[in-house]
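SAMPLE LOG
Freezer: B-3
Tube label: C17
Construct: single chain, 314 aa
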Amino acid sequence: LYFQRLDGACALVGSTVHFIDTYHTSLTNNAMPHMVWAATSFGLVYISRTTDSYFYFTQVDVDGTAIGSTTQPSWGRVPKMVWTGSEYGMTWLDNAGSSSQTRFMIMNADGSERVAWMRVDDSLGYNYGQTLTWTGSEFGVFWRHGGTDGNIHFTRVTPGGSEVGSDQVVVSTSGSSLSPKVTWSGSEFGLAWRDDTPGTFQPYFKRLSPTGSTVGSEVRVASMGGDANVGSLLWTGSEYAIVWSEDIGGATRVYFNLISPTGAIARTEIPVTGTTSNGVGPYMTWTGNEFGVTYRDDADGTWDVMFNRIGFCD
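STRUCTURE (predicted):
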């Protein structure tokens, strides 16, 4: 794993840190990192393939230095977490025999367990694509259920670790619904996912009430019809922003667009990457003034991590 800071002009700040924590002296076989800002430091969770896919958590200073001791919350894959202002909620995929489960736990700021892991899906299947957000009063957990229905499911979890009711289907189509991404607007959820009902995987968006009911209509985000994969969805304080990659004619590019608070597509999608290379795996954040997008690009013949800024003029 590597860590790098950038300033507002995209210039590198300091040296690239080849990350080593207190659990691992090896620099290899760590994967699937997910990092969130937690007021004064970063929280980092990732898996280690050298330990049968256990995942680990550590606090990271702003310069990339590990703080304190690394913890080992559980066994599993693709962990995702959210910061509430005082602690972390985390969800992940856990294999259970011939199926997989959606699990959830709450950790203190130092990575120690506050609420032990719990299973939050109601039926076994190949449940994956877990993600979550914090509403200010409870956690919303989303995943793709690959068993009996292949739809996207949702459940709510209180700060005390109690599930509110049963999980419910929030996306149900005749195709396959995959890769949910979620954000909280202050009053409702914004949910994006990819779905192959049109014949190719396309990005879609819909709004959900705090209890999971659909608000308004779902919309298709992209217009070009290529095979797409949603990267990130976020709320800026006034509108939603989405970034995705899409294969058009054998070349994959990264695209961006805005979505109004009522779910209307703001404009024609904006290409983030050029036409002479492939861009995949986009991830986006919001600074309060502009968007920062990272992605992988093969412009020079090898896959590099790239960064781009997106701003708008009236």
